[in-house]
Amino acid sequence: MGFAPIENERLSDKVVRVIMEQIKDGTLKPGDKLPNELDLADEFCVSRGILREALTILQARNYICRKPKEGTFVNPNISEVMNVSAGITLKEGTYSDLIEMRVCLEQRTVEKIIETASDEEIEELYDLISETDKKKGARSIDHYFHYRLAELSHNAIFMNFIDSYYDIIDEVVTHTTKNTNRRQEIYKEHCEIIQALKERDKEKAKAAVVSHLENVLQNIKND
């Protein structure tokens, strides 16, 4: 089993994503034991503190279980965790239902961020959207931003929800980020959300989220 070294930004998040990907693609199988913390931290080229933070997130999402004196294991029942999204497809006519669901969820998400996130965590969102805006592909632009919002809410239920609906969300994003103009619009809308978070203005943040998701839906309809 090998893990690529992790770059030097949001290290715990990246460790989480790499391990989740290896679980999803079968590299790590149900019940597999992960290397000990020291070896795993060395493989990822991160500190043990960063690694522990990542493992705590994975445990909260039920992807792994940690047994005293035994080690850390992939959840033997991981298929049940992942089956939340298994078999779900986004059929014609259901885009508006999905967006409506996201509106409800993400309005509460930004409220939680305003209540619990630090100024530094909110400021780092600018770095995230600047980085992803330079990359190609739908997932890079919108997906990571909204996933990060769920993480900053510090609510495991929100994170689990977003994770379970990865495939659906990515399908929506693919429809809305095909052209440069729309990518620029998304970048501007993300900036408006972040600015409202910085101002700790819940109503402004919720309005920015609603506006952004309404634009996502409108662009899907125009495709």
Automatic annotation (TrEMBL):
Keywords: DNA-binding, Transcription, Transcription regulation. One of its GO terms (molecular function) is DNA-binding transcription factor activity. The keyword DNA repair does not apply. PANTHER family: TRANSCRIPTIONAL REGULATOR, GNTR FAMILY (PTHR43537), UXU OPERON TRANSCRIPTIONAL REGULATOR (PTHR43537:SF5). It comes from the Bacteria. The keyword Disulfide bond does not apply. Pfam families: FCD, GntR. This is DNA-binding FadR family transcriptional regulator. The lineage of its organism: Bacteria, Bacillati, Bacillota, Clostridia, Lachnospirales. SMART domains: FCD, HTH_GNTR. Residues 9-77 form the HTH gntR-type domain.
